[in-house]
């Protein structure tokens, strides 16, 4: 079969980019452990309190190490339950120092919700029956809005909180 | 016989010239793809 010189060039480019794509995919999946945010860890949506992480006293931000935090959130129409502060008021604002590693764990009590810390890579779907989790390093200081980005009903636009990364 | 050879070599030349524009347009498309991939990767890394 005769191939024109130019055809060889773009065929090589096409096959080459396919190989690069598969290598990147394989590296991400097998070496870095990248996976969908709800990766088969199940929970009873009618009784998420039965899971240790989503007991009312464990909701919100918990410091586990010097630079490591866990943020447990119960999502329901149209509210993110971030736990309560010392005075018993509902927490609407989370503060973490710059450079800290935060593990976000979110579960839904009713319908499908979204969980997006706008302006960061924290963006996941929260499906009833599954725990969505994502660990990330908060390296850019600022105040970010946590929004529900999956339409969940009439009060969808009211479903938000804030996360501040301070220096 | 001779005329056939002449027309064959002419065809070859024609093919080579014809594909230059295709190579340029394919290269432009390839460059756009690579720029968008690299852009998305940089966005992912910086946030």
From TrEMBL, chain A:
Keywords: Copper, Membrane, Metal-binding, Transmembrane, Transmembrane helix. Its main location: other. Residues 17-167 form the Cytochrome oxidase subunit II copper A binding domain. InterPro entries: Ba3_CcO_II_C, CcO_II-like_C, Copper_CuA, Cupredoxin, NosZ/Cyto_c_oxidase_sub2. It is found in: Cell envelope. Gene3D superfamilies: Cupredoxins - blue copper proteins (2.60.40.420). The chain crosses the membrane at residues 9-31. Coiled coil: none annotated. Subunits I and II form the functional core of the enzyme complex. Electrons originating in cytochrome c are transferred via heme a and Cu(A) to the binuclear center formed by heme a3 and Cu(B). This is Cytochrome aa3 subunit 2.
UniProtKB/TrEMBL annotation, chain B:
The chain crosses the membrane at residues 21-44. Keywords: Membrane, Transmembrane, Transmembrane helix. The keyword Transmembrane applies. Pfam families: CoxIIa. This is Cytochrome c oxidase subunit 2A. It comes from Ornithinibacillus xuwenensis. The lineage of its organism: Bacteria, Bacillati, Bacillota, Bacilli, Bacillales.
């Amino acid at each position: 079969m005769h191939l024109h010189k130019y055809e060889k060039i773009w065929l090589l480019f096409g096959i080459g980019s396919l190989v690069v794509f598969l290598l990147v995919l394989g590296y991400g999946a097998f070496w870095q452990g990248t996976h969908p945010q709800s990766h088969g860890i199940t929970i009873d949506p009618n009784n998420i309190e039965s899971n240790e992480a989503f007991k009312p006293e464990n909701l919100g931000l918990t410091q586990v190490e010097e630079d490591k935090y866990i943020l447990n959130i119960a999502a329901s129409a149209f509210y993110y339950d971030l736990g309560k502060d010392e005075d018993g008021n509902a927490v609407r604002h989370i503060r973490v120092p710059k450079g800290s590693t935060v593990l976000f764990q979110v579960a839904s009590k009713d319908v499908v919700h979204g969980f997006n810390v706008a302006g960061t890579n924290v963006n996941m779907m929260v499906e009833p029956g599954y725990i969505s989790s994502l660990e990330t390093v908060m390296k850019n200081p600022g105040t970010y809005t946590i929004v529900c980005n999956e339409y969940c009903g009439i009060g969808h636009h009211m479903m938000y909180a804030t996360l501040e990364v301070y220096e | 016989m001779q005329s056939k050879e002449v027309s064959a070599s002419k065809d070859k030349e024609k093919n080579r010239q014809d594909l230059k524009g295709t190579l340029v347009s394919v290269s432009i498309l390839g460059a756009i793809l690579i720029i968008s991939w690299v852009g998305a990767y940089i966005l992912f890394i910086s946030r």
